[in-house]
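Protein in question kept underneath.
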Amino acid sequence: MKRRSSGIPGLDGMLGGGFPNPSTILLGGAPGTGKTTLAVQSLFHGAKNGENGLYITAISEPAWLVQNFLSSFEFYDREPIEKEIINFIDLGQTMMKRPDMILETIMKTIEKYNPDRVVIDPITPIRDLLQWRGEMREFMHQLFAYLKGLNTVSIITAELSYDDISSSLEGYMADGLIILSYPEVNGVRRKLLEILKMRGTDHTTGRQLLEISKNGVAVQPGLR
């Protein structure tokens, strides 16, 4: 099986060498658990290895604002952005004006940039909008079917808790499912990462300690 290094210290070993390629990974967790940081850190790691990256956001934030937040991390580098090795795209206007065009816009954007890694962050507002319109299930099936046909590692983030997993269509369709959490233990909150599913891969199970610092995200397997 071909793999791409995740770019997250400690995670490749848990995955048996990195993300399977191609694969679609659902990265779930509550706000503040580190989903965006982990996903974008992986994009910048890929760029160092000559891979094109595409970041698609659905929360109507201008690219400069997202990049301003990311610039506090040491993995952030302006050069691959200026050279369009990594591209930041906002779907906010499409969601507001033409929600029926969301899937087509995603597909055309991916075809335009031909990325090796794709991040959709987060899928939750798209899911909620299309669920209200009665179009969510069809959209999810078509999106995942499209992504699975590409030679990419696709990371899709979602506001997703352990209680949501059994009813999550995304969790069922994804090749891999990683959950980030920050439970309170003895009066202290700890950020944790758990790989619940990774098709075709033996992987480390159980919740592992997740650290977020100026260097980015790192997993410390064996520490819980």
User: Anything to note?
Assistant: The first strand starts at residue 3 and ends at 4. Residues 35-48 form the longest helix (14 residues).
